[in-house]
Specification:
The complex is a heterodimer of chains A (303) and B (418). Chain A has 303 residues and is mainly alpha-helical. In chain A, 73% of the residues lie in helices and 0% in strands. Chain A has 14 helices and no strands. The chains are: A mainly alpha (303), B alpha/beta (418). Chains A and B meet through loops of A and helix 3, helix 4 and helix 19 of B.
Chain lengths: 303, 418
C-alpha cells in the first residue's frame, strides 16, 4: 500500500533506496558519532603529546606528559583505587544475584521488594553520594547518632579515614546499583527453562547445588553483561567522588576520571589530562578485548 | 549688532561648556559582563556597580554561570570560541598573562595613572591587578586568608585571651588549658583547598618573601629548601597534630559552625567566615571576635577582579574605562563591601565598614604585609602540584619536611621545564 502511494520514480532509484534504507537512516548518526566521539578521542590523544596548558598549543613534546603522569603518586593511587573500586563493585552483582534468587523462591511480595531494591537506582549518584557523606559525617551522621544514644566512643568516620575512605565509596555505590543487578539476574533466572528445575526435582538435587553447579554456569552471559556494565561504572566513577570526598583525604579516594577532570579544569593543564585519558582509554580497550575474547570462546563452546 | 555679537559669543561659550561637559561624559555603550557569583550578597554587591554604570548611560548585559570551583570552563570556551564577554570575573594572573599575549586584553596602565588614585590602593591589590608591569584588571573586593575568628564565650570558659598571643608558640601554649575545658582549641577543615590556604598562612606567618618566592608569579626554586619553609612546615605539622579527628574532609562552614556552637574555640581560615557568623545573627566583638594569625609577618590577600577585553571601538573603550573607574570609586567600594561582607579596595574607604574590615585595611596599609593569594599569582600547574603535596603532608604524619622539600623541588622542575 505504502509503495503505491510513493511518487513515480525510476525503478533503479527505488530499489537502491529500499535496499539501503536502513544504512541511509544510520548514516547521520554514524557521522556524528565518528566526528564527535572518534574525532574528540583522536584530538585528546594528539593533545597528550603537546605542551598544551590553558589553551591548546601544538608544540610537540613527545612522551613528556606521560613521564610526568607516571611520576605522580596521585595517578598511581588513582589506578589502585580503580582496581579496588572495580573489585568492590562486584559486591553489587553478588548481592543482586542473591536477592534475585531469594525473590525467585518467594513469590509473595516479589513486586514490592523488587521496587524497594530498585529504588536507589532512581536516585542520581550525586544525591546518593551526598546522603552517604552525611551518614559518614562524624558530627552529623551515624557516629553522632550512636554517641547521642550513649555510646560515647562509637567511631564511624570512614570518609575521614584514609584507609577506609574507598570502602565508604564502594558501600555507597553498591547500595545504589544492587537493585539494578538484581533485576538483570532476575531476568536471567526467568529465562531458564522450567524443565531444568523439574529435572533437578526428579533427580533429588538440592537447591543450593542446583544454583551453584547448574544455574550460575547457565547464566554466564548475564554475568558477562554485568561485568561490562560494572567496569564501565568503575571507569566513569566521578560524581560519587565529588559528592563524597573530592578525592580526599590526602588523595586517598582519587579515581582516574577525577584525576583527569581535575587536570583539565582546576589545573588548566590540557596535555596532562589528555595523557591520563589516553592511558585510561588503553586500559579500557585492553579490558574489553579480554571480555570479548572470553565471550567469543564461551559462545563457540556453546555452539 | 553688538548685542548679537555678545549673544553669539555667549552662545558659543555655552556650547563649548556643554560640549566640554559632554566630552567628559563620553557616550557609553553596552558591556557584556560574565560573572560566576550567585549568592544574594554577591549579586546585591554587584548591583551597586551595575547601577552606577547604568546611571552614567551604559548598558549592562549579564551572563552568569554560578561558581565552578574557579575553573572558568565556560569562560575559556567563550574566549576560545571567539565570542568572549567584554568584562569577566577572573583573578588568575597566569590566564591574564596568556590572554594579554594573544592581544585579547585591554591595558589600563595609562588610564590608571591618569586617575591619580595610586596612594589609596593597597599594594597587595595593585600587585593583584598587575601582570608583568601592566594593569590588566580592576578589583571588586578583598578577602584575606590567615585570620582567626574565635568564640568569645568559649574563650571565657577556657580562661584564655586570644588577643594576648603574640606568636604561634604562645597560642599553642594555651591549647592544653583549652582542651581541659572540653573545647577543641583550633578547628580545621582538612580539605585540600583549605589546607592549601592554611600552609600559605603559615608561610606568610614566617616570611612574606618566602610566600612570594614560592607562590608568586615568578617563583624561585631556591626558596623551597630554606629555613623559613621548614619553619612553616613545622607550624603546619603542629596544627595537624592538634586537629580533632573530625577535621578530615570537613567543610569550612561546618568548621565555622563548631566555633559558633562553642565546641571549638577558633578557626584559622579566610575571613569569609565572618558571613557565616553574621548569617547566624552573631555579633562581631560580642559573640565572636577577629584577629590576624598571632605573630604574622603578612597575610594572603584574595582579590575578586574583573578583567576587560580589548575594546573594538571608541564607545567600548569609554565604557570599560567608565566601569574601571566606578569599581575604584570610594563610595562604590564602600557600599559594595558592606553588602558583600568583604573589605573595600581603597585604604580611604572606611565609611560604614565593620571592625574586621578596619583591621584588614590597617594591615594592608603596612608596606609589604599583604601578598596576593596564590590563586591569583601562582602558575596553576605548580599551584596544583604544591597543593597535592600540602594535602599529602597533612595526611601522612610520618612525612618529613625533607621529603616535602625534595618532592616539591621535583615538581617544580617538572612544571617549569622548558
Amino acid at each position: 500500500m505504502v509503495r503505491a502511494n510513493l511518487p513515480a520514480q525510476s525503478t533503479g532509484q527505488q530499489s537502491f533506496v529500499h535496499k539501503h534504507a536502513a544504512t541511509l537512516a544510520v548514516v547521520p548518526v554514524l557521522l556524528i558519532a565518528l566526528f564527535f566521539y572518534f574525532g574528540s578521542t583522536i584530538w585528546s590523544v594528539v593533545m597528550s603529546f603537546t605542551a598544551s596548558k590553558i589553551f591548546p598549543d601544538m608544540t610537540f613534546v613527545g612522551l613528556r606528559q606521560y613521564a610526568r603522569l607516571f611520576n605522580d603518586n596521585l595517578w598511581y593511587m588513582s589506578l589502585e583505587n580503580l582496581a579496588l573500586f572495580a573489585l568492590g563493585s562486584l559486591g553489587s552483582l553478588v548481592l543482586g544475584f542473591v536477592l534475585s534468587v531469594l525473590l525467585d523462591n518467594n513469590s509473595a511480595g516479589e513486586g514490592a521488594f523488587r521496587t524497594i531494591y530498585l529504588y536507589p537506582m532512581a536516585v542520581s549518584l550525586i544525591i546518593t553520594g551526598l546522603v552517604w557523606q552525611w551518614l559518614f559525617n562524624p558530627s552529623l551522621g551515624l557516629q553522632q547518632f550512636f554517641r547521642d544514644l550513649g555510646f560515647k566512643d562509637f567511631v564511624f568516620n570512614w570518609v575521614g579515614d584514609k584507609n577506609k575512605v574507598m570502602y565508604a565509596i564502594i558501600l555507597a555505590s553498591v547500595w545504589q546499583s544492587t537493585g539494578f543487578y538484581m533485576v538483570l539476574c532476575s531476568a536471567g533466572l526467568k529465562g531458564i527453562d522450567t524443565e531444568v528445575w523439574q529435572a533437578s526435582r526428579i533427580d533429588g538435587i538440592s537447591k543450593l547445588r542446583m544454583y551453584l553447579e547448574v544455574i550460575i554456569p547457565m547464566m554466564k552471559f548475564t554475568f558477562i553483561t554485568s561485568f561490562v556494565l560494572l567496569s564501565i561504572g568503575a571507569v566513569k566513577a566521578y560524581d560519587i567522588i565529588v559528592a563524597m570526598t573530592n578525592g580526599g583525604p590526602g588523595g586517598h579516594s582519587i579515581m582516574p576520571s577525577y584525576y583527569i577532570v581535575d587536570m583539565y579544569t582546576n589545573r588548566r593543564f590540557i596535555a596532562l589530562g589528555a595523557a591520563g585519558s589516553t592511558v585510561l582509554l588503553l586500559i579500557v580497550a585492553a579490558f574489553f578485548v579480554l571480555i570479548g575474547v572470553i565471550n567469543y570462546a564461551l559462545r563457540k563452546r556453546e555452539s | 549688532m553688538k548685542k548679537v555679537v555678545i549673544l553669539g559669543t555667549v552662545l558659543v561659550a555655552a556650547t563649548a561648556v556643554v560640549a566640554s561637559s559632554f566630552a567628559q561624559q563620553k557616550p557609553l555603550g553596552e558591556l557584556v559582563v560574565f560573572n560566576n557569583w550567585s549568592s544574594d550578597a554577591e549579586i546585591g554587591a554587584l548591583n551597586v556597580v551595575r547601577n552606577a554604570f547604568q546611571a552614567q548611560g551604559g548598558k549592562w548585559t549579564d551572563i552568569t554561570i554560578a561558581h565552578d570551583t574557579g575553573a572558568s570552563i565556560p569562560l575559556i570556551n567563550m574566549l576560545t570560541g571567539g565570542n568572549p564577554p567584554d568584562v569577566f570575573i577572573e583573578s588568575n594572573a597566569g590566564l591574564r598573562r596568556e590572554l594579554f599575549k594573544q592581544g585579547l586584553l585591554n591595558d589600563f596602565t595609562a588610564y590608571y595613572n591618569s586617575l591619580k588614585i595610586d596612594k589609596y590602593i593597597p599594594p597587595a591589590v595593585k600587585d593583584a591587578m598587575t601582570v608583568d608591569g601592566k594593569i590588566l584588571s580592576a578589583p571588586l573586593a578583598i578577602h584575606i586568608v590567615g585570620t582567626v575568628f574565635w568564640n568569645v564565650a568559649a574563650a571565657k570558659k577556657a580562661g584564655v585571651n586570644p588577643k594576648s598571643w603574640k606568636s604561634m608558640d604562645a597560642m599553642f601554649g594555651d591549647f592544653a588549658k583549652i582542651r581541659k575545658a572540653g573545647i577543641i582549641p583550633l578547628a580545621i577543615g582538612a580539605q585540600k583547598w583549605q589546607l592549601e590556604y592554611l600552609l600559605g598562612s603559615m608561610m606568610v606567618e614566617v616570611s612574606g618573601s618566602l610566600y612570594d618566592d614560592i607562590c608568586g608569579l615568578n617563583p624561585k626554586r631556591a626558596s623551597i629548601d630554606s629555613k623559613d619553609m621548614r619553619q612553616a612546615l613545622a607550624y603546619f605539622r603542629r596544627i595537624q597534630k592538634e586537629a580533632d579527628p573530625g577535621s578530615a574532609n570537613r567543610n569550612w562552614n561546618d568548621t565555622t559552625a563548631l566555633v559558633m556552637r562553642g565546641d571549638a574555640l577558633m578557626q584559622l581560615h579566610g575571613d569569609w567566615m565572618k558571613g557565616e557568623f553574621l548569617a547566624a545573627k552573631k555579633k562581631l566583638g560580642v559573640d565572636f571576635d577577629t584577629m590576624l594569625v598571632p605573630g604574622a609577618a603578612g597575610v594572603q590577600v584574595t582579590v575578586d577582579e574583573e578583567t576587560f577585553l580589548k575594546p573594538a571601538n571608541e564607545t567600548k573603550k569609554n565604557s570599560i574605562e567608565a566601569l574601571f573607574k566606578i569599581m575604584l570609586t570610594k563610595s562604590i567600594t564602600e557600599n559594595f563591601s558592606v553588602i558583600k561582607g568583604s573589605t573595600p579596595v581603597r585604604l580611604d574607604a572606611t565609611k560604614g565598614i565593620d571592625k574586621h574590615a578596619k583591621l584588614v585595611l590597617a594591615a594592608l596599609k603596612k608596606p609589604g604585609f599583604g601578598h596576593p593569594v596564590k590563586n591569583i599569582t601562582m602558575d596553576q600547574d605548580w599551584s596544583g602540584a604544591f597543593a597535592d603535596l600540602a594535602d599529602a603532608f597533612w595526611n601522612t604524619p610520618e612525612m618529613t619536611a625533607d621529603q616535602f622539600i625534595s618532592q616539591a623541588q621535583g615538581k617544580f622542575d617538572e612544571v617549569f621545564k622548558k
